[in-house]
Protein: Lipase 3
Organism: Schizaphis graminum
Amino acid sequence: MQLLNLDDYRFILISLSTVILFNACDYATCIDASTKIKEFGYPLETHEVWTDDRAHLGLERIPHNGNKVIGKPVLLMHGLFSDSYIFAANNSSLSFVLSDAGFDVWLYNTRGVGLSRTLSIYKRPGSLPNMNRISWNFSFHEMGVYDMTAVIDFILKKTEYPKLDVVGYSLGATIAFVCLSDKPEYNAKVNKLVLIAPATNFKTSPVTTFFKQFPKIVSVILLYRV
């Protein structure tokens, strides 16, 4: 048995701080895209989508910026360790910029986070959460093959547009790559695809490094490393 060195502790501290920063407030419901959308005076709709593998997803929608004119739909897809809040954090966030530009903005929440998490673990408003109601046996593959396809079909049916624009950030870009490569027929349903910091090479990804070091993170509780 060997004690962890200073570099080990530093890595673990940074890794755990990152996870806590992006998740703690969400779990305490103090970060919420819906609240921010209403706070900044934009109209809000929330929608539920069921996937073919029975995942329960939640979407926020900003149909217009108050002028009642609904434009072309655009889907915003967030990154890892976050939810749709990153597109609505302040009054100059991307969702509001696009809404002011005339787009019909749709905010996607991956399985288990944001509005998707709320819909999945609460039977009704005010009830106690039940995390066992969420299946955690999934990856970005299911998010691309099942989630994004279901969301695209839902939005196009709701808006009666033949195509939509997609903006993917980090993991959101990965999901888009999976969807459009494994389900090539959906390329015909996407007008413009904008990818920000796309995550595709996991051999050099910080996320991969994090999970390779996971035994160290567990062992910090015991203060020893095997």
User: Anything to note?
Assistant: The beta strands are 45-50, 56-62, 73-77, 104-108, 164-169, 190-196.
